[in-house]
UniProtKB/TrEMBL annotation:
Single GO cellular component term: cytosol
EC number from the UniProt entry: 3.3.2.10
Subcellular location: Cytoplasm
Protein's name in the database: Leucine aminopeptidase 2
Single GO MF descriptor: aminopeptidase activity
């Protein structure tokens, strides 16, 4: 541990990495050398049943082994194959679940196998069982898991903390093909009796375990990449992503060092998948909403891929340091994107400016302003990391890394550090303090620069950070057009008058050549007046009608980032005829980034419609999404 500036040193815990309090387990006493999973996916009973075996080395003598669980049934426990009766499942405590306490004295340097026979229940927050409609006329069973941040405990009894890592072997029985966060050991032409075998030879934390099974087909889309999807989306997924995938991996390696996972595949999940993407090792899970036909959401692939370094290789040791995962990943995502763009730094600036809008918006939406700190305070595990989720760790985090890059001398000076960082902490879980240690270690001659970073402001102060001086060329064309709209919104009396003026202005500003991202930025800036004048677009009703009529391409796009923003525009402009459209659309997507703001938006204009719509579709959503929307709508606490 180096000596860090006083503001940081004062807050640093005595142990580094810090202890994770979002787990009830006593993980610090153990090293897990391997985990073996042997489970069956039972579609008819909607249960996962089987066993998990942990190979443990004892680091510190203790009289108990404590694991996490949440809505699991534990059938039996054995240590070194001998049945253990002296265990209890403790009363549930929110938000951490029910710990499993095994009375068993273990001594330093002991090696033991701990096996737990378990089954999941219908309350599991880790799993969604569903029927997919995509293979009509027969709907087909499907299951996927989503474990980040701490839902692994609801799939299997575990040391459910990003602070501990293990290699894996897995045997998964299912009547459908299975994917897992590791390399497949089945050879495709051998009869497998419905048992799919995998191994993960890189140690990973519990939240990165992933399983999906259903009528999944696959296609090779690069030398180390395969896409998995139901047949009905396989072709379009291939189209959307195959061109970029291998170049992305190569460019990422140029920035961050070798790709250690061998293969990079992804799975397109059904529409209820609650995230845009999830970086499960070897098998990123994606939402089908990324397939818009124009590759306009390819950055999500760059993002999930970048997690192969930040997050999956170098991991946040607790969810209080989540920004280390996401901030670094957004930083890398933009470095990858920039390297493939003809004007790299202009493009990177543009991405940061887009992200800035997200940041401003999401700080406003936070349930607590405190959650906009970079290092979270989860109050010794009392706060559920799902509740603090927002763009803050992503955007404030990426801005922080960018700030460091700039202060330390720009790309040339910072690039070697990036490789140093990912190599130094490879396969480890770290906290923010270790990251800062590594800066001091790498830049001994820049100590003064580092000492002068405003750590207090960046790491601990809620709210917006200082905004860097980003290149505005790509946004300037967009903002001239928006400014014209805003300043002339009450100048004309008819749609035709607006049309004749603004068709011209749009031509001058090259609207037709806007990229999808510039169009997104366009709507974002059109929405800006609402901050000070919430009724701006409803009061300027002819102007808002004109916007919808001139920019028809926004209406017909398959890009969901545009679609959601357009709904925001329409509902704020009180265009009642679109309320039902939004309600209907909310029945087709489960991605929380859209569903949560979508319901809030609907609720603001029509409470009954919002609640009725939610009640109609709540079983379609993933359990985490349902729970959060329920809270957002005030239907639960
Ligand atoms: N790791 C996240 C998803 C996540 C975070 C799941 C926290 C559960 C808890 C993933 O890498 C992610 O950030 N996905 C984004 C896309 C990205 C381009 C910002 C998403 O889902 O929108
Ligand atoms: Zn991410």
């Amino acid at each position: 541990m180096s000596s860090l500036p006083k503001v940081i040193q004062d807050r640093r815990h005595t142990q580094s990495p810090e202890i994770d309090h979002s787990t009830l387990s006593n993980y610090k006493n153990f090293k897990v050398t391997n985990t073996h999973l042997n489970i069956e996916l039972q579609f008819d009973t909607k249960k996962i049943v089987g066993l998990v075996t942990y190979n443990l080395n004892v680091l510190q003598s203790v009289s108990k082994i404590i694991l996490d669980s949440s809505f699991l049934k534990i059938n039996s426990i054995a240590i070194n194959d001998k049945d253990i009766k002296s265990f209890k499942i403790n009363e549930r405590e929110e938000p951490r679940g029910s710990s499993i306490e095994i009375d068993h004295q273990v001594n330093e340097n002991d090696e033991l196998n701990l096996t737990l026979n378990f089954e999941t229940t219908d309350k599991s927050t880790a799993i969604q069982w569903l029927k997919t409609e995509s293979n009509t006329p027969d709907s087909v069973d499907y299951i996927f898991t989503q474990l980040e941040p701490n839902h692994a405990r609801s799939l299997l009894p575990s040391f459910d903390t990003p602070g501990i890592k293990s290699t894996f072997t897995a045997e998964i029985k299912s009547k459908y093909p299975v994917v897992f966060s590791g390399l497949s050991l089945n050879s495709s032409n051998v009869e497998n009796n419905n048992v799919y075998k995998f191994e993960q030879t890189v140690p990973i934390p519990s939240y990165l375990i992933a399983i999906a099974s259903g009528n999944i087909t696959s296609a090779k889309i690069g030398p180390r990449s395969t896409v998995y999807a139901e047949l009905s989306v396989l072709e379009s997924a291939k189209e959307e992503f195959s061109q970029d995938i291998e170049r992305f991996i190569q460019v990422a390696e140029e920035v961050a060092g070798p790709y250690i996972w061998k293969t990079y595949d992804f799975l397109i999940n059904p529409f209820s998948f609650p995230y845009g993407g999830m970086e499960n090792p070897n098998i990123t899970f994606l939402t089908p909403t990324l397939i818009s036909g124009d590759k306009s959401q390819i950055n999500v692939i760059a993002h999930e891929l970048a997690h192969s370094w930040s997050g999956n290789n170098v991991t946040n040791a607790s969810w209080e340091h989540f920004w280390l995962n996401e901030g670094w990943t957004v930083y890398l995502e933009r470095r990858i994107g920039a390297k493939l763009h003809p004007e790299p730094e202009k493009f990177r600036s543009f991405e940061y400016l887009m992200g800035w809008n997200d940041l401003v918006e999401s700080i406003k939406q936070l349930p607590k302003f405190e959650y906009s700190r970079l290092i979270q305070d989860l109050q010794n595990g009392k706060i559920d990391p799902d509740d603090t989720f927002s763009s803050v760790p992503y955007e404030k985090g990426a801005n922080f890394i960018y700030h460091l890059e700039t202060k330390l001398g720009g790309l040339e000076e910072f690039d070697p550090y990036i490789k140093f960082y990912f190599n130094k902490f490879s396969k480890q879980s770290i906290d923010s303090y270790q990251f800062i240690d590594s800066l001091y270690e790498f830049y001994p001659q820049k100590k003064e620069i580092l000492d002068n970073i405003d750590w207090e402001l960046w790491l601990y102060t809620p709210g917006l950070p200082p905004k860097a001086d980003f290149d505005t060329e790509f946004v300037d064309k967009v903002t001239t057009l928006t400014k014209e709209w805003i300043s002339k919104a009450n100048v004309f009396q008819t749609v035709d008058e607006f049309k004749s003026h603004f068709t011209q202005i749009s031509l001058i500003n090259n609207y037709n050549e806007f990229t999808t991202e510039q169009k997104i930025y366009f709507i974002d800036t059109l929405l800006e007046p609402l901050e000070s004048t919430p009724k701006f677009w409803s009061e300027n009703s002819i102007a808002s009608d004109s916007i919808l009529s001139i920019y028809q391409d926004l209406e017909t796009t398959k890009n969901t980032e545009i679609k959601t923003r357009l709904f925001k525009f329409k509902l704020n402009a009180k265009k009642t005829k679109f309320y039902q459209d939004l309600a209907d659309w909310l029945g087709t997507v489960g991605r929380m980034k859209y569903v949560r703001p979508g319901y809030k938006l609907l609720f603001a204009v029509d409470q009954k419609l919002a609640i009725d719509t939610f009640n109609k579709y709540k079983d379609f959503y993933h359990p985490i999404a349902s729970k959060l929307v329920e809270k957002d709508l005030g239907l639960s606490k």
